[in-house]
Amino acid sequence: MWRPTARLAPHLTSAAITAVVLAPLVAPGYVLRYDMVFVPRQPLSWEMVAPADALPRAVPLDALVSLANLAVPGWLLQRLVLVATLYFAALGMARLVPTERTLTRVVGALAYAWTPFLAERLLLGQWGLLLAYAALPWLVAAVRDVRTGRPGALGRLVLAAAPAAVTPTGGLIALATVLVLLPTKGRWRATVLGVGAVAALCLPWVVAALTSAAGGRSDPEGVAAFAARAENWSGTVGALAGTGGIWNAQTVPGSRSSALVPVATLVLLAVCAVGFGALRRRWPDGIARLAWLAACSFVLALAGTAPGAPALEWLVTTVPGAGLLRDGQKFLIPYALLVALSFAVGAESLAHRLAGRIDANAGRVVLVAAALLPVVILPDLAVGAAGQLRPVRYPADWDAVSARVAAAPGEVLSLPFDGYQRYRWNHGQVVRDPAPRYLDAPVLMNDALRVGAVTVDGENPRAAKVQAVLDAGQPVASLGVRWVLVRAEPGLDVPATVLSGLRPVYTGNYLALWENTEITAAPPGPGRRWPAVGAHVLAALVVIIGACAVLRGRRKP
Asked: Quick one: CA dihedral 34, 38, 39, 43, positive or negative?
């Protein structure tokens, strides 16, 4: 029998969560915070496919944004991505919870889509990582379907893993999830195909890393700088247990410092403990594997703190690519998923017990209270994290500079030489320099990161050379760049010696552009980047084959 309430409730809950969190985005403009940088039209460049001198932290994410920008303007694309992330995170969890009760699904949706992890990563602008967060419930459901032999399940697995694999971290989480949950006796072919497909989706950033001139080893100072941190009296472990603990204190909602948060977290975990037993009965083999995966993600989140810090420092300085493990808190996604699942089922179990002892209304009260608990713990996620997600408009200077650079292509050096900037027109909010995405030219920028009083060295050898020239006060014209873009704001005057030999071509209220007239040739061609192109093509083919498999499965009676 068709039950419209049961079918619509998860969708309505997901839509309500999305509307409440992203309410400020009804205003025009762009939300620019830390790593979240959208521009009107992002050009597609080789640097987005395979960075020559930097690690591929946004491969293939940036290239996909550029392709999407061909049809959708940046302001709309940002809204579509953020809306889809929150909506499908909530809906995916609502569908994943093994229950027939509508209220239990609502509890699961709120427990997964209203979390400190989502709030902190949203405020850090890591929307690419949140794509993996939204995709994981769908991926787990697809793996479960593959194990039971449902038609089209392998195609759904590929489509669920694809959004996660657009960043290295998300790709690793998706691959680990499939490796842990998928292997099944008698279904070795499906296991090999599933693992192989997800591995192929990760190839774009893997190949780009192998062909980049950037050093694969990282600064050990970053281990302490990016380690999980305490948010209240419960310490680092308590923060992580509640899915918080991000390294950047500026992106932590104010409510996380409340003395009552650890108490509420204990209540939540107690309900999870009740639900875990019920989950083992409903999904005996799968939940044990998921628990193992969640435990590993929690240990990895703690790796940067004592006593694991020395081992992690050795890894990042010895093993190429191990720097990806420094910000361990970002790997908490499987743990957050298990918490949401267990909490929803635990609330249902408690409601069932109370309904049997008192009446049905008592059970419903328990489920409603459970649904509201995440909101009570984190009230300031609402309305754009208490107004922190505020859209702004780019000044006209950006279009003026972009037009001049496009008319005479050449490499651009962005000054001040900091990867993250504070602009007056962006309410003084820290944001990654928009130049590489706004300008249709390769932009040389600093990949070192200042965290408090610590500067974590980057891996780009050219950036290190630029920094040495700037520290010596020498002319940047000697670096061979065609353009120098200067942020024109009070207190940020660039020394005249640094700009010596350059010709000013544009001066606006916020930006100034200088040209090196000695450089007239465009930068060299892609060269060794063709292997990365092949990896992108292969990943795209895997997604297309997965989509075709899903469509074929739906057409079967």
From this structure: positive
Q: Which residues contact 544 (CB under 8 A, 6 or more apart)?
A: none
Note whether 290 and 351 are same-domain residues: yes
For residue 352, the tally of other CB atoms under 10 A from its CB is 17
Asked if the structure places residue 538 within a domain, the reply is: no
pLDDT tens by residue, 120-140: 999 999 999 999 999 999 999
**Which residue range is the domain that position 148 belongs to?**
4-387
- From residue 555, alpha-carbon distances to 153, 157, 175, 190, 262 in Å are 14, 18, 29, 21, 50
Residues 511, 446 share a domain: yes
Give the Cα separation of 358 and 346 in Å (integer).
Answer: 18
On whether both 310 and 376 belong to a single domain, the answer is yes
The answer on pLDDT for 248 being more than 50 is yes
User: Are both 203 and 283 inside the same structural domain?
Assistant: yes
Backbone angles phi, psi at 494, to 5 degrees: -85, 135
- Which residue type sits at 366? V
Q: Which residues pair with 431 in a beta bridge?
A: 34, 421
Rounded CA-CA distance 99/107 in Å is: 11
Same-domain status, 380 and 403: no
Q: pLDDT, tens digit, for every residue of 66-117?
A: 999 999 999 999 999 999 999 999 999 999 999 999 999 999 999 999 999 9
Q: Please, which residues bridge with residue 504 across strands? A: 514
Report the domain count for the chain: 2
pLDDT band at 63 (very low <50, low <70, confident <90, very high): very high
Of 522, 494, 294, nearest to 411 by C-alpha is 522
